[in-house]
Please model this.
Amino acid sequence: MYNPETGETFMSGVTHDPETGAELIKRADDEEEAILKRIKLYVDLALPLIAEYKREWKLIEINADQAIWDVFQELETKLGLK
Model:
């Protein structure tokens, strides 16, 4: 569900933006068929590419599950800028 005025997204089941009161709409690409298609494309196209980049040492993995500053510092270190 999303607010077409602000572009903000909300979890399924929420019908109105709690801040603005605007009615939320369901995007066409949030249908199960569209989601399954995106997952299949990821598995078929992105995962093999990621594996290839790892084999060729062209991939830098960053832990994005941390504070923004820590992500930045990790990036600097792994890119040899620090």
